[in-house]
Input
Amino acid sequence: MNERRPRLSLGTLTVAGTLSLAACGGVDTSAAKPETVSPEKDAGAKNEDAKAVDSGVGIETDAAGAQDGRSEVGLGHDAMVTDGGDEAGPATLDPDVVAMMRKVADWQLPRAGTSKDWIHGAMWTGIMATYVTTGDVKYLNAVKTWAGDWGLIGGTGARGDNQCAAQTFFDAYLLDPTPSNMKMVSGAKPSFDALVANPPPGRREWWWEDALFMVPPGFARLGTITADKKYFQVMNGMWWDTYAFLFSPQHGLMYRDMSFFGSTTFWSRGNGWVVAGIARVLQHLPEDDPKRADYVKVLNTMLAAIRPVQHADGLWPSNLLHGADAGPETSGTGFFAFAIAWGIHHGVVDRAVYLPVVKKAWTGLVSHVDADGKLGYVQNVGASPAPAAADETHEYGVGAFLLAGSEVAKLAR
Output
């Protein structure tokens, strides 16, 4: 399944704690607390089954959405929020960035629905990141309500896009890795175990680039939870086969799928799925994993390719290499901003080079949040570049925004 696409032939969770593979394995969240402030199946399909084109379905949108011209975008503000830190050290969080995360998350939550498709699964990664950033239990409670029985669409046979939700289930478990919480893992784990038992070629299973966000982060988290390297090994084998299939060394970018081979069409959101997925894999991939340095290299190669085509407003065009006159689009930019900020924060991306890039990107994203907290200019579910409207929003764009904010907020340190 996927941002669907016509079928073709063929970090440790940072919760103010430290990773510990004790009994069940997970993250010590004893220091987590609320912040304290000082002073896209068939492109365009609109039904439950279509959660496939970006991996896509029909989305509820709010027609209202004028920009509020907000200028307080954070980064460099005097007052700072502090949290308990993570594996990179104690964090000082920019309060304006945190406040903007809350604003966008709070607008989205009443409209979130209960679907566990990829559209919403991507959003819930951002809601979980908002909980980790703020310590506000309402976001964690919302995740748990959405997760319900912690099962996936398709059950134990879930594949591709329908496995996206699992990464948030596993993150919830890692917050409190006790036997009583194993239900957060056991519902989704069998679908990954089926791939481990009989690993298909990546280019056949993950034949579209979005898949590299949907599934590998779940694999990496299972590796952490179980302390079993087989999850990393299978993930690596499949990931790198997809890379060999879809990546263009000439352009430093990834094709959405084989239908674009030989062209210069590289989709912003599609490549955003890839770099954000790399960052979320690296959150949990062991330091001594033989492929870790290669993931970091690909991340830097792709970021180097997108840096020159960032627009003056901070956003990237939907069609990366043919977007000089294109209008705004926020979902691709959100994923790029997350990957860049995460990379800076963890020392795998050059801070001097990319801090100005991500600051400009965040400023651009915030400029398209209206007074109520609605994020606009999110391209519809699709399988290729396309324009977005000012009042157009979709859940996955909100997820990208919130992931970005969770890392941009730390750049104040």
User: Anything to note?
Assistant: The chain is about 45% helix and 5% strand. The beta strands are 3-4, 19-20, 26-27, 36-37, 53-54, 81-82, 92-93, 247-248, 253-254. The domain at 3-412 is CATH 1.50.10.10 (Glycosyltransferase).
